[in-house]
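Newbie here. two chains, one complex. Structure please?
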Amino acid sequence: MIRQAHLKLIAGHSVRHGIRGGAGLVSLFLTLVIGLVLASIVISPLDAVDQQIERMDRSETGGHMTEADKAEARQRVNLEVVRIAGKAINWVVEPSSEQLDYLTSQQPAIVSAILVMLFLVTPLFGCLSGFNQTSGDIGSKGLRFLLIRTERQNIFIGRFIGTYLFAALVNLALFLILALYMAAKVKVHPSGDMVLWLGQGYLRVMLFTAPYIAICAWVSCAIDSPFGSLVIALMAAYMFPLIVGRGASLYASVGYLNYLTPWGWKYWLLEPVASAHFLGAAIAMLAFCAGFLFLGLRYFKKRDL
Amino acid sequence: MTDQPHRAEAASGSAPAVRIRNVTKTFGAQKALDDVSFDIPSGTVFGLLGPNGAGKTTLFSIMANFLKPASGSVEVLGINVNNIGDLQGRLSILPQDALFQANVPVREQLEFFALLSGMTKQAAADETTRVLTMVGLLDAQKKSARALSHGMTKRLGIAQAFMGSPEVIVLDEPTAGLDPVNAAAVRKLVADIKTKARATLIISSHNLAEIQEMCAAVAILNNGKLVEYKSIAELTQATGVVRMTFGRKLAELEWAQLRGLPGVGTVEVDTTNEYSIELILAAGQTSDLLIGTLVSSLAQAGLVPRSVKEGASLEEKFLEATSKKD
């Protein structure tokens, strides 16, 4: 029997002690480092442009370049950066012309480029947050203190919810840092537009994270070693797309196999909310999440603990 | 052995606290439990004995639904343990090797367990204080489990097992690794629970003297099979043996006097203590009738025993039961 009060208690306990366990701290650290490094790859050309304009100002006009001239120079370069960002998005996402227009013209292109990069590592972030949902406590038999106090499904689902909330907090920290930095430093797009699109991007990233934390819930309850659980979860997340990607380079139709995993649907999440693609991807993410949770729970209820 | 569970139920006159029926458990090719069936009477302190690897912890783990049996069933308080949620707060266990969360403070862990057992926040806090005081860990309440010694961790395990008002408490080797002071404190806790709470306690231990002191009845497992199921009294007294210890080594003449006492069949020296002897009673004699006669006869002969004990020790019966071939 699923007990709401138990789910709340277990999820809350799991979030509170996410970082204390050490694995959570590593997850927070790696998510911030990797996320910020990826963002800096996109943002740093703009910084370089800014510095170049300042240098031009000093060398060509002796520091007397007018603000209007500086803005014009920035605008020219920024348009170029947006064009390059669009190309990068085009190369990674292979979007339709509507999606490309949505990501580069209707939304701040720089933020879109960052989101595209972050989507590539979202499964990694999900696995880092979720790999030790139950495996460590199964190995140490610490789960036994809970097993006589509540049903297994409450432990499994409660830990999943707690882990998902923990991942949401970790990603929130990353997005807040990005929002603050971009609002202060990046002048390509209006700050409000960038923060708003980053906020939407955060929600979309969290939607994409859900099935990976569910995969981890399944793997983690099947393996008594947290490290083993991490390795297998990462293989499940990345090996299949890599193999399919290799196959697709030989036979294009092999690429459709990616739709058997959340990976294949991810960039549909970067389409307008009202579009059929976005809705389809959102439903697919939830369905994958439910499916992995179902398989994990079925195993967890039967296994020796 | 097959009639024993039913005999226990009939003797107690009430439904058993635990009903184990035809439980078999395998780990790969290894049979950890082989068709084990018995009942544990309600309101008793019951010992589960067996050498290492006999299947005691496996049976406890099945009772608490940690492990799933290959076949058979276990009911606790009339509820199949597959529906463990229905036993919320009524069954508690001290698992043998389970570790607490290393980085979480002791108090927080216990309060979390209490909340899961259905207590309110205030009740959980009060109950945590009570059990921590009971096991002498109140001063360590803010420490993380990682900072506790082995003995303190064991006491913390006992504290969580005694939280609330469980009707069945399973203690898997509760005194293992404890110093004599703490071991005695645990035995006192068990005695208190027995008298005050009227709970059913099920204990495993390799300390057989401790089991003999605490338990009313025992089951002995060997190689996954139930080989003995009796009350302590039945197991140790109805043996036709009277053990006596004297203040000195007996002379040959005194041996002869002992052999000549009425009702005594043979007299054997205890190989572990030359001051002790075992009087094996003649067929048809019972120790109850003879002890008085024996003691008075010995006194007349100038031999005053320092101790007189009926029957064999639990250790002897344990060794006898576990050395039998299948």
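Moderator note: DSSP finds eleven helices and 14 strands in chain B. The two ends of chain B are 14 Å apart (CA to CA). Thread marked as resolved.
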